[in-house]
């Protein structure tokens, strides 16, 4: 429900216009929780989720909480266990086939 609300205010932009520090599909993000725990995760489509390899679905509470935010942002999100602040420490993008072709 919350993700649906967030998508209502979303803006569609070309990949070239998207800042590299914005979390989107296949982004790797290092996040810090209020407890002090830092975790590196990758936001993926549901069929690519793999908890053992820190790949979380966009449809999970954490995945939808982070989507569209940038390095340095703090996100207050209402998880099933209660509200938590999540600080985005770092964002890295996976190399795409287009990036690989341009490098060759």
Oligomer: single chain
CATH class: Alpha Beta
User: What percentage of residues falls in helices of 4 or more residues?
Assistant: 10-25%
- Radius of gyration, CA atoms, in whole angstroms: 14 Å
Specify the number of helices: 3
What do the pLDDT scores average to?
Answer: 85
What's the CATH superfamily, by name? Transcription elongation factor, GreA/GreB, C-terminal domain
- Spans where pLDDT lies below 50 across 5 or more residues: none
Q: In order across it, which strands form the biggest sheet?
A: 3-2-1-5-4
- Intertermini distance: 43 Å
Strand content: 25-35%
Total strands: 5
**Overall form:** globular
CATH architecture term: Roll
Q: Write down the secondary-structure element order.
A: HEEEHEEH
Task: Find the structural class using helix and strand composition.
Answer: alpha+beta
The name of the CATH topology is Chitinase A, domain 3
Which sheet architecture does the biggest sheet show? 5 strands, mixed
Number of structural units classed as domains = 1
């Amino acid at each position: 429900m919350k993700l649906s609300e967030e998508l209502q205010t979303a803006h569609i932009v070309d990949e070239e216009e998207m800042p590299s520090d914005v979390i989107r599909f296949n982004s790797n993000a290092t996040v810090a929780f209020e407890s002090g725990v830092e975790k590196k995760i990758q936001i993926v489509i549901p069929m690519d989720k793999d908890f053992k390899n820190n790949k979380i679905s966009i449809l999970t509470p954490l995945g939808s909480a982070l989507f569209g935010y940038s390095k340095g942002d703090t996100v207050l999100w209402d998880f099933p266990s209660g509200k938590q602040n999540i600080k985005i420490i770092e964002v890295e993008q996976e190399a795409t086939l287009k990036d690989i072709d341009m490098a060759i």
